[in-house]
Amino acid sequence: MMLVILCTACGTEDPASQLPNVGEVSKEQSENLTENNTQTARVSEKSPAAAFEEGYRILNRSIFDNSMISWYNDEMKQEIEAYAESVKGDMVPVWEEDSIFPQGLVMEMEDVIYRSLDSNMHKIQWEEIEQSVYYETMRELGMEKWNPDMEEMKILFPELKDAGPELDSVYDAYREVCGNEYCYDLFHIPTQDRDQYVLAMDSGGTAGICYIYLMELVDGEFVPISDFETQNAGYGGVIQYEGEFYYIYLPNNYQLKIYDGIRIYKIGEDMEYENLLIKYLPYEYVWKNLYNTSEGMKWEYYLEGIRDEITSDEYLQNGTDESGWSVYFGDEEKVENFIVPENERRYYSNEYHKIDFANIGIPVYMRKSNFIPSNYNSKWHLKSSFYLQSPKNGSIKTLENMEINHYLPNPLQPELVQMWFKEMEGKVYTFCLYHVSDYNYMLNVVRLEGNEVNRIRTDILSPRRHFVLTEGEKSIY
């Protein structure tokens, strides 16, 4: 694991929110800290019952939303992506000699991936995909030749000549001849023996799965030859290379909703298994410090010790089937016999931890888990619910407004994926790890003092990457 120290002062945040140079404390900060210490003392010195109610009033708010990183902006995102480009590594093509796929085609697709790492799903709209490296390459390989336009469709399917105004576009014609409202693309690939078509159809479900069919047109009817499923549409297209036809599309990382590879299917009777998945995945992360304070520098040794662990497949989504499934913990204390009845009904297992992360003298109980997406909109992120327990009668009060449990992500903002807490010198620090873009992550460390959020340090984690090829795998995920 490597570490790059950029600066120990402010990064790319608004001047109004900048902290002073390392080792200095501004008058405003001093006043804030004094006020927070007074607030903390007030909570701690009250009777247990009064402290419980006061703690609820202070804590029942949306602490972990994006206001915690209000300084994050497009300029910082561009800086992160530029850094990722600089550390990804040299282009090292990979090809297996026993592959059924031509070396030239495989390496051309690897070059497409290498040159287009910033292709996040939220960035690629149709206008952008037409200008992308991927689409430019597919055009050069003749993709548009096999996509019939309306004139060609009327020649191939004479019945369309009598169609009414309901056929507004060629895609309406595709749906008409397919007899399926979910047909979104059609390719004509005639051979000497057969009049063949590739039909692409959406499943119509929220998972985003698509079905690709190879059909032969016989006496005006489509006769199935073979088919396969794709995880997403991915701007798929048909090309011809060295005399063979291939269907190529962009699969995404279903957890992060980013394009991280290319899949090639050899069109034929066994195309479900005759496929090659090319992914460009992380094998190690390089850390770069963007922002630091004197308090932040004290965490250098700790961060050095956890770098390999926190960026492993266990805790980070790195593009493998096994990655990103576990929740990370720091100094949170595991508690027994803490029962939230509604959670017992909702979840198979419940595990709770506690810590005074707001530094007001009152422990907060929490249940943390990962949200694993099951549709084409949602993304992998941290889910967490928070509670206070009355010292008087043991009753449990839910901090509803603090809950982390959104359904749809904001593609323009980082996604909180791990959060843990560490104690040092009598204070508890909050570590928030965000997914920013592609396989880039950002670690932000703060110290909470009641309602006040004090930014301590910010690091970015960008990967060195290599190509990983998987051939003949049926799975779409």
General description of the model:
With 477 residues, the protein is α+β, with helices and mostly antiparallel strands. The protein folds into 2 domains: 2-81 and 282-468, no CATH class; 92-281, no CATH class. The protein is built from 11 helices and 20 strands. The strands form 4 sheets. Strands 1, 6, 7, 10, 11, 17, 18, 19 and 20 form a 9-stranded mixed beta sheet that branches. Strands 12-13-14-15-16 form a 5-stranded antiparallel beta sheet, with helices on one face. A 4-stranded antiparallel beta sheet has the order 2-3-4-5. A hairpin with a 2-residue loop joins β18 (427-437) and β19. The two termini are 29 Å apart. Residues 1-38 have low confidence and may be disordered.
- Largest sheet properties: 9 strands, mixed
What share of residues are in beta strands?
25-35%
* Structural class by SSE content: alpha+beta
- Helix content bin: 10-25%
Sequence stretches where pLDDT stays below 50 over 5 or more residues: 1-38
Q: What spatial form do the alpha-carbon principal axes imply?
A: elongated
The tally of helices reads 11
Key features?
5-stranded antiparallel β-sheet, 477 residues, 22% helix, alpha+beta
Question: Summarize this, please?
Answer:
By secondary structure, this protein is α+β, with helices and mostly antiparallel strands. It has helices at residues 27-45, 48-59, 74-87, 103-114, 126-129, 133-140, 150-156, 170-178, 294-297, 300-310, 341-346, and strands spanning 2-5, 183-188, 196-202, 210-218, 221-230, 237-241, 244-249, 252-253, 258-259, 261-266, 275-291, 333-335, 352-355, 364-371, 381-389, 396-398, 415-424, 427-437, 440-449, 452-471.
